[in-house]
Amino acid sequence: MDNQHKKITGYRDLSQSEIDGMNSIKALEADTGELFKQIGQIEGVDPRILALAKTNLQQGFMWFVRSIAKPADPFS
């Protein structure tokens, strides 16, 4: 649905450069996900450490996107 963000409280309109930046981050995230799957197939990889890497990568990409999106902070 076009402009669905306008129906969600706390979201704002993004500039084209912000959209381009977020799309670049999402492309890098997708590539990283594929690399993660590849590494997961290597025999002897420590699954606990790999799980920690996944969690931290997911969190890092989330913060990367939020640095651009700057959603409203309900706690401030």
TrEMBL record:
Keywords: Nucleotide-binding. GO terms for molecular function: nucleotide binding. Residues 7-69 form the Acb2/Tad1 hairpin domain. It holds the Pfam family Acb2_Tad1_hairpin. It comes from the Bacteria. This is Acb2/Tad1 hairpin domain-containing protein.
